[in-house]
Write a structure and sequence with these properties.
There is one protein chain. The chain has one helix at about 1-15; strands at about 30-40, 45-55, 60-65, 70-80, 85-90, 95, 100-105, 110-115, 125-130, 135-145. By secondary structure, the protein is mainly β. It has a single domain, classed as Immunoglobulin-like, CATH 2.60.40.1890. Strands 1, 2, 3, 4, 5, 6, 7, 8, 9 and 10 form a ten-stranded mixed beta sheet that branches. The protein is globular. The termini are far apart. The relative contact order is 0.24. The model is unreliable at about 10-15 (pLDDT under 50).
């Protein structure tokens, strides 16, 4: 009887030593991060929006950015050519599954034409991001004056 009790106890203890189930990483979710806007130095000139798009579980394509406080927003490819800054409009930007595409000063960005004069530095500007898949994401972009340092940069 004692042997049966010990065997039963040993079996119970060993059963509790099973390997934990491997945790699957959470599926990637399409998201907008770090959105901010730099207003133009001269009123009436276009501003620019910067942000990072994090890809979801499948590739997608950013096709439009809109705001109730901006007449027109165009996606632009920025860069340098022959020592000169360049930019040209883009119809959309491919977002890889699980990857990230940054829109940053000196590179890709969204040009904001006809910004409502009520939009002021340190306010938040609502932006809506539309994707080829039909998904739409909303983000609040921190508004910065022309000479202000980018958010997260204290110089």
């Amino acid at each position: 009887m004692r042997r049966l009790l010990l065997a039963s106890l040993a079996f119970t203890l060993l059963a509790g030593c099973q390997q934990p189930e491997a945790r699957q990483p959470a599926p990637a979710t399409l998201a907008i991060e770090g959105a901010w806007v730099r207003l133009a130095a001269v009123p009436g000139r276009p501003g620019a929006a910067y942000f990072t798009v994090r890809g979801g579980g499948a590739p997608d394509r950013l096709v439009a950015v809109t705001s109730d406080k901006v007449e027109t927003i165009e996606l632009h490819q920025g860069g340098t050519e022959g020592g000169m800054m360049t930019m040209k409009p883009m119809a959309g930007v491919d977002i890889p599954a699980g990857g990230a595409v940054a829109f940053a000063p000196g590179g890709n960005h969204a040009m904001l034409f006809g910004v409502d004069p009520s939009v002021r530095p340190q306010a938040m500007l609502p932006l809506s991001f539309r994707f080829q898949s039909g998904k739409t994401l909303a983000a609040q972009a921190k508004v910065m004056a022309a000479g202000d340092a980018a958010p997260g940069h204290d110089h």
